[in-house]
Amino acid sequence: MALNLTCLNVTVPLPIIPIGNNLTISPTHSNYDPYGKAISQLISSSLARSTFSTADIESILNTLTSDDTNSLNLPALTSMKPIKSTIIYGSVTLFLFLILSLVFYCISCTNCCQAKSIQDYSRSKQRKCSRQCVSVVVILLIGLIVLGQMIYIAYHVNRTTTFLDNSIQEFNQEIYPKEIGLYLEHLLQQLKMLDAYSMPSSTIIIDASRSMFLKSFNKILKEQYFLNIIQQTISSNDMHIDELNTLIGQESTSSPIATSIVDEITKQHEEMADQLAVPLAELCAFVDGKDTDIDAIILDSLSLVHEQITKITNIIEIDFLNYMKPWEDHVLLNQELEKQIRYYTRLAGTILLVLIIIFGLFPVGLFTVIILYHCRQRHLVSKYRSRDDDRQSSTRRSQSSIVHSDFSSESSTNGTICWLRIIFIPVIIILVMIILLSSLFYAVDLFAQGACRTAHEDDTFLIPFLIDELLGSNSSDVMIPGLDIQTTFLKIVDDCRHETHFSRHFFASHLRRLHEDVNKSMNQLNDKIGQQFYVSIAAINIQDDISLLNNLSSLFSSDSIRNKIEQIREGFKNLQQQFENITAATPTIPLDIVNQTIDNFEVYVREMIESTIDTCPLPLATIYKTDIFVCHEFAATINGLWFSLFLYMLFLILGLAIGGLCVYKQLRVTANTESRNIDLMRSQF
């Protein structure tokens, strides 16, 4: 009778792991460039980085989120670096431009009060033309620069306003709480699916352990229990016993005693095979699912994973989803408040846009005035020269008319000077308003750049800060004892950044118990098999079989029968030697087999986890969208806008000063020339 190896000859495949994650969905994200491309952006970013560090942002966030009410009083707020820096920038800029305006006023008044006589036109004509041409070219260049800046700033202001309007709506209606809540539901579903695999009702882990244990114990039975040798020896003895029966049946001198001995040998041989099948039945019982003790140990190896998943699912359900549902009732801003904020945002952007455009059109108007007066002066000079040539032939009536016309021109010139001074007053008012808005943009730019640098470069502060704000005192309830939540989440962020599945580090501590329990379950199963081997070997009497063969050999003189009996005897001796080897060996599993089984089982569990949960458990799509809104669009759009406004106002004031002085001078030249000619006409009259 051959040894029964039915369960050992069956290959149990590993269970197929269901795919529950989004392996095909991999959000992409461009790198954040904090400097920008324009010169104003490069200068602004360099100043912000040198004067406003991430440590300042950390201090501001800690102050704003502090429970101490005194931390938000006026002295504490004004001591914050961005606010202090904004106050300094606004004060210096306002002082600078007001000083420039006052200097322009003083110079213009001085020029107006001085009644300089105009020298002979023919001697100074070339020098005055040269000065006028230079002034016109300088004012033209400044005007073109101001117009270019006006278009650039107006475009960015309009873009920023439109972006803020759209982003407020997007954030309030889509990102929070809807998108975040939907992702938390998706993550919760994956976690519950993974948790179900560690439950007794699930068979995937147990089936995988049976497949791996069967493969490992096939090797153990061959190496430690010499199963192949025993099986081959028993099969050979079966064949030799059958052949011996045939030879004895053909022998004419065969006696009933010989037949009885052969039957007894055959019976004992069958009983030996049955005894040896008992230890193998332990492994077959485990494979067939009848050994629940081993199954319990395997499931217990994932108890820490189950405990961790339970903690996370409870946090998601109780602290987040129950608070966020229904989505429409838990928005950051109610619908009416959102409409008001968007309205005032658009209104502020429109007012700033109008101020910038109106303010920027002054150089064009001023340059036009200069050109017109320049042409008028040439016309007057030509008229006066014509008068000098024809004054001897003029009548008294025409001379009186000229005098009356010149008096009107002088009055018109003085009126124009007064109007230019009056018009300059609202220009100063608009200038002050733009300076205040520029200071606001400066503060927002500092904070936006600092916040984005903190988000991209300072995970060691941002992660603990967010954990403390989101979880508060419940942060210790998220992780199993012995694990630090901040260190764990920093590692998760690093894994997400490098596109490594977070479970490789997150569940590393949880799977350490897997090593111990797999080792324990294998040794426990091996102990059961070994004990049964010892019992079976003790019940088998090889010496009795050999004695029966010796007695049988003495009954025959046939060489063929004696040779066959000798072959059977050698087989029994071989079996006896293997039994002695089993009994003498230490009943432990070779370490390499245990380690290989543990590694295979851990790989399978990790594949199960990675196939069930997304590579990154964070809402990457939402985080990337928020980062694009805040850093790639808003911060990039507003970056350097304050500096562009500063240069815009500087060139505008310089253009107004230079152009205004030129206008005043040309008006005074015209007025003095007209006065001189009036005096001349009066003397002649």
TrEMBL record:
Q: What keywords sit in the KW lines?
A: Coiled coil, Glycoprotein, Membrane, Transmembrane, Transmembrane helix
Regions that span the bilayer? 87-113, 134-155, 347-373, 418-444, 641-664
- Report whether Membrane shows up as a keyword of the record: yes
**How does this protein sit in the membrane?**
Multi-pass membrane protein
- Coiled-coil stretches, from where to where? 558-585
Q: Which domain of life is it from?
A: Eukaryota
- Where, per UniProt, does this protein localize? Membrane
Q: Which InterPro entries match?
A: Prominin
Q: Which GO terms describe its cellular component?
A: membrane
Q: Which family does it belong to?
A: Belongs to the prominin family.
PANTHER family attached to this UniProt entry:
PROMININ PROM PROTEIN, PROMININ-LIKE PROTEIN
| Protein name as catalogued | Prominin-like protein
Which species is the source of this protein?
Adineta ricciae (Rotifer)
